[in-house]
Amino acid sequence: MTRQDRTQAAYEAAVMHFVQGETMESIARRLSVSRSTVSRLISEAKDIGLVRVTVHPPQAAASELQNSIAEMFDVRVKVVPVPFGVNETRRLNAVAQVAAIMVSNLMKPDTIIGVAWGNTVAALVDHLVPRPARGSIAVQLNGAANASTTGVPYAGALMEEFGKAFGSDIQYFSVPAFFDYTQTRDALWRERSINSVRETQKKADIALFGIGSMTSKSPSLVYSGGYLSPDEIRELREDGVVGDICTVLLRGDGSWEDLEINSRASGPTPTDLKQIPQRIGVVSGTDKIAATVAALRAGVITDLVIDENSAELLYALVQRAQQVTA
After folding, report:
1. Domains of the chain: total
2. What pLDDT is attached to residue 152?
C-alpha cells in the first residue's frame, strides 16, 4: 500500500468511526482489513491531522448557551452537545433521545399530551422510555390528510407509540392538515366527533412538536408532502413565512393572525397553544433557526430542546438583530 493509499484509508476509517459511528469490526469488514489495522489507521488519522479533538469542561459551553437563550426568550432550554462533524441523521438522533427522555419523565397518571406529527417527532418516538401512566391520553394536535393521502398510517403510527410506551389512550384527529375552504373547517369543527377531540386538545397538559421550516435542506413534510401547492409555497415565502408549528404558518417576526391559510389550518393556533401549560419544541438542524426564532417570538414554546450548533447560531442571530435595532 502506497503512502497515499494509506492516508486515504486512514481518512475513510476515521470518517466511518467518528462521523458515521461505526464499530471497529464494521469498519474492518468494509475495508477488508483486521480490527487492529483499523485501530492503527484511526491513530494515524489523528497523528497526521485528519482528526482534531476539542476538549472542554463537560456541558460548559452548552450550559452557557442554555442560560443565554433562556434569558432572551423566557423559556427553559436544553442544549444537546453533538460531536464535531456529525451528520444530520446522528444530530437528529441525539436531540430526539434527549427530548424523548424529557417527555417520558413527564408522563404521569392522567396526563394529557398533545402531539403534532412531523419528521422530528417521528425520530423521537423511537426513544420513548416505557413507563405506566394510567389514565393518560395522547391526542393528535393537527390533521394529516392532503389531496393524495389520508395521512392516517403516518400520523397514526406515531400516536400508537405513545400508547405502547405509556399505556395511553389514543385520540386521532382524522381531518385534513389544511382545508380547501374556511367554511368547511368551521362546519366540521361543529361535528360532535371532531369537537370531542378538540376539547381533549384544549385540556392537554403538554404539547409536543417539531419546528417546520420552509428553508430546510431536508424540507419539512408540510412543504414536501403535497400539503401545499408550489404556488402557495411561493406566495407564503413572498409574504415572509419561514415555517410552522403544528401546521400553523409563521412569519419571521412570529406573526400569523392575518395569514389566510391559517384560517384553513387544522392545527392549534399560537393562541390555542398558549393555553397548554408545557409546550416542548424540538429542533435539530441549523437550517431551522429562522423558523425556531419565529416560534419563540410567537411565544408558543416553554421548553426548547435544540442541538448545540443550532443553539449557537440562534443566539448569534438574535444578538445581531438586537444590535441592529438598538
Report:
1. 2
2. 60
Contact status, residue 13 vs residue 35, Cβ threshold 8 Å: no
* 38 shares its domain with 95: no
Q: Let me know whether 261 and 289 are in one domain.
A: yes
* Contact residues for 311 (Cβ-Cβ < 8 A; gap 6+): 62, 65, 66, 69, 77, 79
Phi, psi of 178 (to 5 degrees): -130, 130
Is the same domain home to 221 and 255? yes
| 82 occurs within a structural domain | yes
Distance (Å) of CA 63 to CA 68, 278, 311: 9, 21, 11
Among 215, 209, 196, residue whose Cα is nearest residue 270: 209
Domain housing 23: 3-47
Q: What angle do CA 67, 88, 40 make, to 5 degrees?
A: 105
Strand, helix or coil for residue 306: strand
Q: 182-189 vs 192-202: helix axis angle to the nearest 10?
A: 80
- Residue 250 identity: L
**Is the domain of 274 the same as that of 303?**
yes
In a domain, 55, yes or no: no
Domain of 35, CATH number, reads 1.10.10
Q: What is the pLDDT of residues 11-68, one digit of tens each?
A: 888 877 775 567 777 788 878 888 889 888 988 888 888 776 554 444 555 678 899 9
The set of cell numbers assigned to 128 is 420513548
DSSP 133-151: -TT-EEEE-S--B-SS---
32 and 89 part of one domain: no
> Which sign does the torsion angle of CA 102, 312, 88, 37 carry?
negative
Q: Which candidate, 288, 298, 296, places its Cα nearest to that of 92?
A: 288
> Is beta strand 137-140 parallel, antiparallel or unpaired with respect to 169-171?
parallel
Mean pLDDT value of segment 3-15: 82
* In a shared domain, residues 166 and 283: yes
pTM of the model: 0.79
